[in-house]
Automatic annotation (TrEMBL):
A Pfam family hit: zf-HIT
GO cellular component: nucleus
GO biological process, one term: chromatin remodeling
SUPFAM superfamilies assigned to the protein according to its UniProt record, in alphabetical order: HIT/MYND zinc finger-like
Protein name in the entry: HIT-type domain-containing protein
Family annotation (InterPro entries): Vps71/ZNHIT1, Znf_HIT
Classification via PANTHER family: ZINC FINGER HIT DOMAIN CONTAINING PROTEIN 1 (PTHR13093)
Alphabetized UniProt keyword annotations: Metal-binding, Zinc, Zinc-finger
MF annotations from Gene Ontology: zinc ion binding
UniProt keyword annotation of Zinc-finger present: yes
Transmembrane feature ranges: none
Organism per entry: Phaedon cochleariae
């Protein structure tokens, strides 16, 4: 049995493209919507560490005991303390703005819209955020360089494809 030269030779690029899974436009949109929902759900929850209070039972080790005052002063609380203690998430701020806008008969944050831009939309690299000039053939995600393409292929490409 002899193997001809033409069967041994071939383009590696064509072989790679045969292995690659290409997703249609509806799957790309579904994937994009799923990613956006994950980001939105991640953004709209309270900070789990916001209410943590340090325990007073932790021993305090002072290196220099000579400077210790016999009389204790009450700690003055700064504005940073109150800003941290009564911090609000974005959803609470939007709700307060809407209620205040209804009382004052003004436009709220959620009601404001700008007109559509006459310029074409910009496309950014999904890896680093610079302008993305190239598209991934499989999933359609934008990237800007070979380095970002390698990162995309290794970690992100079709990760959430259904």
């Amino acid at each position: 049995m002899t193997i001809s030269k033409s069967t041994l030779r071939g383009s590696n690029r064509i072989k790679e493209n045969d292995k690659r899974r290409i997703v249609d436009e509806t799957s790309r949109k579904r994937r994009h919507r799923k990613i956006m929902e994950l980001l939105e759900s991640d953004n709209y929850h309270d900070d789990p560490h916001a209410d943590l209070v340090m325990s007073k039972k932790i021993p305090k080790f002072d290196d220099n005991l000579e400077h210790r005052n016999t009389r204790t002063k009450k700690k003055e609380r700064t504005t940073e303390y109150y800003q941290f203690k009564y911090r609000k998430n974005f959803q609470q701020l939007v709700d307060e703005d809407r209620a205040e806008a209804e009382l004052n008969k003004r436009v709220s944050y959620m009601d404001i819209q700008c007109e559509e831009s006459p310029l074409p939309p910009r496309h950014f690299c999904a890896v680093c955020g610079f302008l993305g000039q190239y598209n991934c053939l499989s999933c359609g995600t934008r990237y800007c360089s070979i380095r970002c393409m390698d990162t995309h292929m290794d970690t992100r490409c079709l990760k959430w494809a259904a």
